[in-house]
Amino acid sequence: MANQELEARVKEALETMRPSLQADGGDLEYVRMDDDNKVYLRLIGACGSCPMATMTLKMGVESYLKETVPEVSEVVQEQ
Prior knowledge:
The chain has helices at about 5-25, 45-50, 55-70, and strands at about 25-35, 40-45, 75. By secondary structure, it is an alpha+beta fold. A three-stranded mixed β-sheet has the order 1-2-3. Strand 1 (about 25-35) and strand 2 form a beta hairpin. Helix 1 packs across helix 3.
């Protein structure tokens, strides 16, 4: 089970970036975090069907999370 404090920091960081996704008609949903500090997210709304979703997830969300919460090892898209 992921550290609850770490998970709370991840969720807080995600909340700060949600408005930019929502402005484009999309959003993200936190699914879980595993013992290797991989964060699993689901892209929803316009983001879920966007061909650039993987790039948004890796280049945007993952890089932001790693910068804000350095313990995060990777962001993985859940279907």
